[in-house]
C-alpha cells in the first residue's frame, strides 16, 4: 500500500511539547528548564491557550478506488487527516481547541544544590489524547517532574520526566514561538506516538505474519522522556557553551517503566554569543547547536502478541538562531533561524489513506527499518516592531522517505515532499497575554510514480487534497 501516505498527523501534537519554560539567562533551554536562581524559593506558573483553526484550502477526498481487498473508495467524502483539527480529528475543516491548560511549580529545596520542576497539563493535546484517536485518554497529565542536583562541578544531574534535548523548535519556550502549528518534521518524526503494532513492515522471520492491525496508539512522549540528564554550562567572555547527555527509557509520558528494556541516548551541545538586550527566553544572542538521538522500539509481529521485533532509529541535526540588533544598532530587533534535521528508521508515515476513524484506513504505518529516512529544513525570520507587535515568516520542508530500504514494503513511490510557508502576526495585549494570527499555505507532493496505476491515482488524490489553513491563538501566561 505505498499509495497514500503523506502528511501527518496531529497539528496539535506539539501543543503539550511546547509548554512553559521559566525565565532564565539567555535562550539556553537546557539551563532554563533545569536550573533555578538561588534566590527563588517556590514559584507557581502556568499557561492557557485557546485556538481556532480553519483549513479553508483543503478538499474532501473524491475518486479514490479500491485496490484488491483494500476498500479505499470508502474514504471518499472524508477529509485528509492533515485537514482536520487535532487531537479530536472531527471530520470538518474548522474547529476550536483548548490547546493548553497547564500549571506548574518550580523552585529550590536547597538553594544552589537541589531544585525541582513540576507541571501538569489538562489541555486538548498529545499528552491527554490517544494517538490518532478522537478519544480523550486522560483528564490531566503530568508533563514534567524533575529534580536537579548540583553537587559535582561541571556535571549537574537532572532526574525524572523532562524534555528531550533536541531541535530548537521543540525545546523553545512559548514566549519565543511565533507560530501556532509545528512544522511537519517535528509533528511527524520528533513527537513520538507509541503503538503495539506496525501494520506495514518487513517480514523479517520467514513465514512470520504481522500483529493485528490497529488504528490508535497507547501513549505519546509529548517531546519528553523519563530518565537522567547530565549537563552544565560554561561561560568564557561573551560565549556560553552548554552540553547535555540524557539516558532515557524511550517511553511515553504516562509510564515510568521502560517498554523494551533498552535505553535511548540523547546528546546535545550549544554555544551562544551574547548580544546586548532582551531578557528571559528572549535574551539576545547568536546560538549554534547540534544534537543526536538514538534508541530502539519494538512491535508485535503476530496476532497473539507472543512474537516481536526490535527496530533501531536515530535522529540528528543542528541549527543556528540569532536574536537582536543583528543588522546593526538602531536597525531594529530581528530573529533569524536555520534548522537541519535528519531521521533514520521509525519514520511515522500515515494512517492508510491518511484518514483517521473511517470505514477503511487509519491502520498505522511506520517505516520502522533503518535505511528508511526523512529530512527537514526550516528557515525562520522574525521582526519585532515594539513591545506590542512582532511578525514572522517561516519556510519548512519535509522530505518523507527520501531514501528507503528499497523493497516491496517501502520504495521510491512512498516518498512525500511537504512544504509549509507560515506568516505570523503577534500582538501583546499585555506582557502576559498575546494574540497570534497565522496564515499557512501548504503543498504536498508524491513525486515518484507508483507502478500500480490505481495506487498512483489514489496517491495524487490524497496529496492534492491538502491546502492552506489559517488560525487564531490566544495565549495567557501567569
How would you characterize the overall build of this protein?
The chain has helices at 29-34, 168-171, 184-190, 453-464, and strands at residues 42-54, 94-110, 114-121, 141-152, 155-163, 193-194, 219-220, 224-236, 239-248, 264-274, 285-300, 308-324, 333-344, 347-351, 364-367, 373-384, 389-403, 416-430, 433-440, 442-445, 469-477. With 478 residues, the chain is mainly beta. The protein has one domain: Porin (Beta Barrel). The protein has a 16-stranded antiparallel barrel with strand order 1-2-3-4-5-8-9-10-11-12-13-16-17-18-19-21. Strands 6-7 form a two-stranded antiparallel ribbon. The chain has a two-stranded antiparallel ribbon with strand order 14-15. The longest helix is centred in the last third of the chain and has 12 residues, at 453-464. The chain starts with 28 loop residues before the first helix and ends with a strand.
